[in-house]
Write a structure and sequence with these properties.
InterPro entries: cNMP-bd_dom, cNMP-bd_dom_sf, Env_Response_Regulators, HTH_CRP, RmlC-like_jellyroll, WH-like_DNA-bd_sf, WH_DNA-bd_sf. It contains nine helices and eleven strands. By secondary structure, the chain is an alpha+beta fold. It folds into two domains: about 120 residues, Sandwich (Jelly Rolls), CATH 2.60.120.10; about 70 residues, Arc Repressor Mutant, subunit A, CATH 1.10.10. It has a four-stranded antiparallel sheet with strand order 1-8-3-6. A four-stranded antiparallel sheet has the order 2-7-4-5. A hairpin with a 5-residue loop joins strand 4 and strand 5. The longest helix is centred in the middle third of the chain and has 27 residues.
Length: about 230
């Protein structure tokens, strides 16, 4: 790990994160002064479930998969995070072991902030704590919505919704994870995902020009599925 020079502060990942957006450049510099830079290779585990290290991880470059292991031993993908997203916040805000583990989907650069130092900053700058709570509330709501969809909606609905959400209005979707991970996140097997994608392609709604890429052919038709 390398520690950034406070005097030569480059906002970097700190400026990308919504919880720090209300801080001045000088205040962001104070955050940078307690931040360590970490490089993680694709496939490397960023942190493990059950550990008690109190650190906040902020992604500057790359993508990270957050997963949990059920009592039956099944891996469930919770979310995929990218630049500007943070993780590990529960171990900082609560004295409890981590309940999930994080794995780099790409080579990543991230900023690591020690938990106790972050708590001190939250006391000095309440906006950090408020925005962190807002983000946590949003994540809980998104997770609850996904769980309800996984339990009560058809595989076609979940897949169509995921494609549209990932598209961001574009006609081409590059999956941020493997199909196996996407299937896990959507609460289905990879075989079911592949079969339903083929059905959507046969219906003329999408095509799959290359691995990990989905092109939306008929957006209105895909929206009708949901």
């Amino acid at each position: 790990m390398t520690v950034p020079n406070h005097e030569d502060y480059d906002p970097g990942c700190i400026s990308l994160v919504p919880i720090f957006s209300d801080l001045s450049l000088q205040e962001m510099g104070e955050v940078a002064a307690i931040t360590q830079e970490r490089h993680v290779s694709k496939g490397e585990t960023v942190y493990f479930a059950g550990r008690t290290e109190k650190q906040l991880f902020v992604i500057h470059q790359g993508r990270v998969k957050i997963s949990r292991i059920s009592e039956s031993g099944k891996v469930q993908v919770i979310r995929v995070l990218g630049p500007g997203d943070f993780m590990g916040e529960l171990s900082v805000l609560h004295d409890m072991p981590r309940t999930d583990f994080a794995e780099a989907l790409q080579d990543c650069t991230m900023c690591v902030i020690p938990g106790e130092a972050l708590k001190t900053l939250m006391q000095r700058f309440p906006s950090i704590a408020l925005k962190a709570l807002e983000e946590l509330s949003t994540r809980v709501e998104q997770l609850q919505t996904r769980l309800e969809q996984n339990q009560h909606s058809s595989p076609e609905y979940r897949i169509a919704r995921a494609i549209l959400d990932l598209s961001g209005g574009s006609s081409t979707v590059t999956l941020p994870m493997t199909k196996g991970d996407l299937a896990s996140q959507l609460g289905m097997t990879q075989e079911t995902l592949s079969r339903k994608l083929s059905s959507l392609q046969e219906a003329g709604l999408i095509n799959q020009p290359s691995p990990g890429v989905i092109r939306i052919i008929d957006r209105s038709g895909l929206e009708a599925v949901i």
